[in-house]
Structures are given as structure tokens and as C-alpha cells.
Amino acid sequence: MQHRSVDVVVVGAGIVGLATARAILARYPGTRVVVLEKEPAIAQHQTGRNSGVIHSGLYYTPGSLKARLCVEGAAELMAYCDRHRIAYRRCGKVVVATEPEELPRLAELYRRGVANGVQGLELISPERLREIEPHAVGLQAIFSPNTGIVDYRQVAAALVGDIHAGGGEIRLSAPLQGIVRQGSDVRVSTPTGTLVAGCLVTCAGLHSDRVAALSGAGPIPRIIPFRGDYYLLRPERRYLIRGLIYPVPDPAFPFLGIHSTLRMDGSVWLGPNAVLAFAREGYHRLDANLLDLWDAISYHGFRTLARTYWRTGLAEMIRDWSKARFTAAAQRFVPELTPADLMPGPSGIRAQALAPDGKLVDDFVIDQDGPIIHVRNAPSPAATSSLAIAERITDVAAQAKSTIASASVPRNAVS
Q1: What share of the chain is helix, strand, coil (3-state, %, to 5)?
Q2: Same domain, yes or no, for 396 and 321?
Q3: Do 201 and 229 share a structural domain?
Q4: Given this model, what pLDDT does residue 254 score?
Q5: 334 and 252 share a domain?
Q6: How do strand 93-97 and strand 244-247 relate by DSSP bridges?
Q7: What are phi and psi of 86, to 5 degrees?
Q8: Based on the domain organization, do 159 and 16 belong to the same domain?
Q9: Are 377 and 297 contained in the same domain?
């Protein structure tokens, strides 16, 4: 079997893995970087199946990695798109309170957004809401004018071009088989050969816990896959929704709820719901993988989560099968919607880390053990934050392994 020595191996050709490889090459030209991807193409899972929103940083706890890296990452992402002539739109977003009990939560969201440095936020009246979204109703709303949309597959493709231009390599259809510490280096095996690297960075998304376990890292936090299904608004009814309309998040369930998303192609998505996926890559209701399902339901943390939120979880499952229930959730902010307006759409799976106490891990998690760095939790807004996450990983990698920094003369900024 072929053996090759390199400086850095990155596992995963989603947007975080690709951005990390690019950041290392840009900061340290001449570094030998190889990206391993088990699929025959890049961006096949969370990157290629997300809603396409460039989040502003409204929801996240001030001071958290999500808050800092989302705000930084959104600005970096838009600048990157400008340089690479990738189309995006600052279409804006409204978060709408439709019940009196939601008003204090809306005010807290506004406070968080301001604390996180989100620019241009407004608390708006029902009249101003109607100016932005003529068919929406609500008691009060937050308007985030700088929230945007983009096709993240195009961003990922541009990152591939940067990696190749910097001398990096991307190996497709190259699943990871083993990780072995070898002195100060890491031995990484795949069906096509073995790489001996000075540093290993894993950005494995839906399989991040399993990949970490290959290196001897602990099994916690465990990844639980949540499937989210979307409906498409019929083209002749798109006039009902101009852009992004979100409800105030329900504190009884740790997801954002059914909302509308304008896409770069002009289509409008409604969703997603959030139900346990029976397979980590199971994008249809009946897709199942017994190992994946057992990993989820046998985990104490998931059973605790299920006991805590069983009513909300049951409602989500019913809504998953009932178009009328799904539509009713969207009718809260656009009453004119009807079930006939909705067509079946795509689905995605969120790789969500879950702690043993049943709480969803709320922040990005990046673990470092010598020359090995694992991204253990990077759900939304990871795509928005990807360039900023990559810079942070590069900082950690350079500190963990001096061979990266010594491979070339570092640059202060990524081009």
C-alpha cells in the first residue's frame, strides 16, 4: 500500500473542511495539504443541503464561539463572494412574534443581536412588518436587513479552486479507515493508501464522533441526526412571501421552527421540521440504518432529551406526516397560505452534538489533542461561519504543530 508524508490531512470536504484547507494554504504557502472525502463529490451532506442563509448572528449567546464566528464569518463570506464573483443577496429577515407571550423572547433576541454586534437591527411595528412582508402578520418583529442568502455549493466549489491553486490535493471516494498516533505524527489510512501527517484536522459532520473515536478520543459529545423536511411554495403563490420570515423560537424545543427561506433561484422553501433521522444520511422518512438508529436510541443523553421534550417531539413527528399541520405552522405568520400552496421539497440532516444530560450542545466545539484537531460540533450557523472557523482551526493547528508554521513563511491575511 502506498505511503506518503504530508504536513496536514483534513478529513471532510464539506464547507468547513474545505475552508480549513484553504486557510492553512493561504497563511502558510507551500504546506502540503491533503483533503480526504468519502463521497465521490464535495459538499454532499450538510453543505449542499442547507437552506442557503447567511445568518447575521442574532440567536447566539453573547461571547460564545457561535456569536463571534457567525458575525465575523458572515462579513468574511460576503467579501469572499465579492472577490470570487459568487452571487448572493442581502434580502433581510424578519422574526415575527404572533402571540403576547412571545414578546419578551423577541426582546431578548434583539438584545442578543445588539450585544453580538449585528448591524442594522430594528424592532418594528406591525405596520412596518407589512411594508417589508405585505402578507405577514404579527404583534411585533425584529428586522435584520443584513441577513443574506447564497448557494453554498458555489462557495465550496470556489474553495476547491483555491485549494488547488495553493498546491493542495483533494481525494474523493477516500473514506477514512484508521488513525494512529506515530510519535509526533499521525498515520491516516484509506483504501487508496496511507498518509503520514504532521497534523490531522477532522471536519466530519454527521460522523464527527465516530471519526474522533478512531483516534482514541472520547465518545462525548455524541452526534444525533435530526432530519428536516422542506416544502416548496408553488411559483404562482411566491408573491405571498418576499424573503425570510421566522417565528420566535420556542423555548420548549431547541430548534428555530417552521420558517420561510428565499433561495437564490427565486424559489421559496418552507420548513424545516425537526425529527430524529433513522440514518445519519437518511434523507427520506423511511430511510433507516440499524447501527445509526441504535447509536441514537441507546444513548442516555438522547433518552433524556426524548423524555423532556416528548410532547413537542410527538407534535413534530405528526407534522412530518401531515401537510395540514405543517401548513398551519407557517400560517401563524402568513395566514393566506393553504396546503394546496405547498409542494414536496428537499430535506437535510443536522449533525447535532448531544451531551449526556440530554442537552443539545449549543456552541461550536473544537477539540485539540497534540497534532490532532477534531471539530466535534458544527451545526448551523457553521456554513455562514466557515471562513472564520477555518481561521480559528488554523491558529490551533499552528500552535499544536510547529511543522505547519515552519513549512513556509506565514501570511498575515487570507486572500
Answers
A1: 35, 25, 35
A2: no
A3: no
A4: 62
A5: yes
A6: parallel
A7: -95, 125
A8: yes
A9: no
pLDDT, one tens digit per residue, over 110-139 is 999 999 999 999 999 999 999 999 999 999
Q: What gap in Å lies between CA 358 and CA 239, rounded to an integer?
A: 41
Output the domain CATH number for residue 263: 3.30.9
Nearest to 297 by CA among 305, 308, 286: 305
Residue 180 buriedness (CB in 10 A; 0-12 / 13-18 / 19+): middle
Residues 50, 152 contacting (CB under 8 angstroms): yes
- Contact partners, residue 98, CB within 8 Å, separation at least 6: 137, 138, 139, 247, 248, 332, 333
Whose cell is 508524508? That residue is 5
Total tally of structural domains belonging to the chain: 2
Secondary structure of residue 311 in the 3-state scheme = helix
**Judgement on whether residues 158 and 202 belong to the same structural domain of the protein:** yes
Which element (helix H / strand E) includes 229? Answer: strand 222-233
Instruction: Assess if residue 70 is contained within a domain.
Output: no
pLDDT reported for residue 415: 34
Q: Which residues contact residue 390 at a Cβ distance below 8 angstroms, ignoring those fewer than 6 apart?
A: 16, 19, 20, 22, 23
Residues 201 and 295 both lie in one domain: no
CATH number, position 9:
3.50.50.60
- CA dist 180 and 200 (Å) reads 11
Query: What are the distances in angstroms from CA 89 to CA 55, 128, 147, 245, 353?
Result: 12, 21, 8, 15, 31
Decide: 371 and 217 in contact? Cβ < 8 Å. Answer: no
Q: pTM score, two decimals?
A: 0.95
Q: Which helix (H) or strand (E) holds 331?
A: helix 323-331
Tell me: do 239 and 192 sit in the same domain: no
Q: Which residue has cell 430594528?
A: 122
Spatial distance between the Cα atoms of 207 and 11, rounded to a whole number of angstroms: 11
Give the range of the structural domain holding residue 288, as residue numbers without chain letter. Answer: 222-354
pLDDT for residue 167 is more than 90: yes
